[in-house]
Write a structure and sequence with these properties.
heterodimer; A: mainly alpha; MetI-like fold; 2 domains; 16 helices; globular; B: six-stranded mixed β-sheet; four-stranded antiparallel β-sheet; 9 helices
């Protein structure tokens, strides 16, 4: 039977059934399809009814207006969005926090453009990006009022912890992956044990150690600001996972690639830079994007060491007496912000996969 | 004849893979400008021997001297030798994430410190010599096997090597692509390059080789001129091998 079908030229074969035939081909199929459509429609109508038609959009009437309505209370976002986005940052300086957030996002977007994919350009971009972020947020110079790190909060803190965690963690991850592939057993085994050890710890305990325990055990002068200790802990956690992803990428490279580079007289570091890492990242791209997305969402855990990133400031936004009933709307708002970031990251990952596949089977 | 300089000298070279004795007291001297074809049944140590010459494999006994430098653990010696010894692999091993041109200019720029424009000009000259300049901006995955192998030869030549090693360069190719690669190698031989070639292409061996080295079970069994090797092989094992590959 299949032989016959194979021999019929493509043009003469019956066309593949369209979606109409698939979903409504038989009475049973039609019944299942109609039921599903009705269900989806019902749920969608209900959400629309709650979120749009009956919703209260302005905070002119205060919480009382929401109590009177059966719909969503977007009024709380109207009333409290600055608390959600900026946390405890001084009210009059919110523009600085907002601008700083834009700077980090812009730096991230720029570094996604192939024009910047050179070590010097990337390094310059990120050093400038972080310097501007720091000056804007911390102040105390250029006529900006000083705002200590413990007052930072909201979206800009989330973005800062995420970006610096990944940026510090990525080179560490590359280093760990290369060390783990060392031909010297002492080095590869020690690195392996280190990665396994850190991976076995929950992120919460690492953050807690960095924030609370290190000030006791480190000598004075080595402690640094709590925020930076936490970022280092965060970066370390990212690095051990990412190291294994990169190692997987390196192991996917046919061994002949490295041999060909050796035969041309390239040194170890030249091979790593030009042959091994570029190809390893191509193979490891899907899990890398996965890891970065997870990391973005894990930033919400810093609340346990007392940082008001966007989740925590969201909690605070509905936590005061009159708005306590409106937590669903606050979480929906925060979810949309997370979604905007993570979905963009995912689409960028998909774009990278397309670009890098050019000319390769 | 004997006043010529030795380009490669293997003396009493041994190599083990665990308990397996891959090279057994191999002695071989290859002179500058000489073309040597290495043949033998599979598993006879041909590839292992040629890969020891640029130390893709480490030898475990004896001495290997290439272009006057002895190969040992010293990484600087190894890299110095690799610069002057080009290698072409059975499976091409072009860098998959780079275009043909980028494949060719990589090592000249990084190792020989050439400028990009000089390296590109030279790469285009060699790509023309292997008759494939129009593919310079393609990726390896877009080329046929024969085209990839010619690019691999150009890539090796871009380092201006003094010696070229070929490790079964046509064994992974479809039959109709073998001759395009062999033609390039014959041209190269005509220009006086020192060549060591592991191959089963006996027509090529007869045409180009100054000497045939026949290996079996990790040993060099017979060294002879092509005429005498094909007409009247000295050793019983050589005779049996020739019967097998020429017999049909």
């Amino acid at each position: 039977m299949t032989d016959l079908a194979d021999r019929v030229p493509l043009a003469q074969q019956p066309p593949k059934p369209g979606s109409g035939r698939v979903f409504f081909g038989s009475p049973v199929n039609s019944a299942v399809s109609v039921t599903c459509l009705l269900l989806i429609g019902y749920v969608f109508w209900h959400v629309l009814d709650w979120g749009v038609m009956n919703a209260v959009w302005t905070d002119a009437g205060g919480p009382e207006a929401c109590h009177a309505s059966s719909g969503a209370c977007w009024a709380i976002i109207n009333a409290r969005w600055r608390l959600i986005l900026f946390g405890l940052y001084p009210f009059d300086e919110h523009w600085r926090s907002g601008l700083a957030c834009v700077v980090v996002v812009l730096t991230a977007i720029l570094s996604c453009l192939p024009v910047f994919w050179q070590t010097v350009r990337l390094a310059t971009l990120w050093v400038c990006g972080f310097a501007i972020f720091y000056i804007l947020m911390r102040g105390g110079m250029l006529g900006l009022a000083s705002v200590p790190e413990e007052k930072w909060g909201g979206l800009s803190l989330t973005v800062f912890i995420f970006a610096s965690g990944v940026l510090v963690g990525m080179p560490v991850a590359i280093g760990l992956a290369l060390l783990r592939r060392s031909t010297l057993p002492v080095i590869s085994r020690t690195t392996g044990a280190f990665i396994d050890a850190v991976r076995s710890l929950p992120l919460v305990s690492i953050l807690f150690t960095a924030a609370v325990i290190f000030p006791f055990v480190l000598p004075p002068g080595f402690q640094g600001e709590k925020l930076y200790r936490v970022i280092v802990g965060f970066a370390l956690f990212f690095a051990v996972y990412q190291a294994e992803i990169i190692r997987g990428g390196i192991q996917s490279i046919p061994v002949g690639q490295d041999e060909a580079a050796k035969a041309l007289g390239l040194s170890y570091w030249q091979r790593v830079r030009m042959i091994i890492l570029p190809q390893a990242f191509r193979y490891a791209l899907p899990p890398t994007i996965n890891q970065i997305v997870t990391t973005f969402k894990e930033t919400s855990l810093v609340v346990i060491v007392g940082f008001f990133e966007i989740m925590a400031s969201g909690n605070a936004a509905y936590g005061t007496g009159e708005w306590t009933f409106a937590y669903v709307e606050v979480y929906a708002f925060i979810a949309m912000i997370y979604f905007a970031f993570v979905f963009t990251l995912s689409r960028y990952g998909a774009y990278l996969e397309r670009v890098m596949r050019v000319g390769q089977q | 004849m004997e006043t010529r300089q030795a380009a490669i000298q293997l003396s009493q070279v041994n190599k083990y893979y665990g308990a397996y004795h891959a090279l057994n007291n191999v002695d071989l001297t290859i002179f500058e400008g000489e073309k040597v074809v290495v043949c033998g049944p599979s598993g006879s140590g041909k590839s292992t021997m040629i890969r020891c010459i640029n130390r893709l494999e480490e030898h475990h006994g004896g001495r290997i001297v290439v272009l006057g430098t002895e190969l040992n653990e010293d990484l600087r010696n190894i890299e110095e030798i690799r610069r002057d010894v080009g290698m072409v692999f059975q499976h091409f091993h072009l860098f998959a994430h780079m275009t043909v041109l980028e494949n060719c200019i990589l090592a000249p720029m990084l190792v020989r410190k050439m400028t990009r424009s000089d390296a590109e000009a030279m790469a285009m000259r060699y790509l023309e010599r292997v008759r494939i300049p129009e593919k310079a901006d393609k990726f390896p995955g877009e080329l046929s096997g024969g085209q990839q192998q010619r690019v691999a030869i150009a890539r090796a030549l871009c380092m201006s090597p003094k010696i070229m090693l070929f490790d079964e360069p046509t064994s992974a190719l479809d039959p109709e692509m073998i001759s395009e690669v062999l033609d390039v190698m014959v041209d190269l031989a005509g220009e006086g390059m020192t060549m060591v070639c592991v191959t089963h292409e006996m027509g090529f061996a007869r045409k180009v080789a100054d000497r045939i080295v026949f290996m079996d079970r990790g040993e060099i069994v017979e060294e002879n001129t092509p005429d005498r090797f094909f007409e009247n092989p000295v050793h019983e094992r050589s005779r049996r091998f020739l019967d097998q590959i020429l017999g049909h």
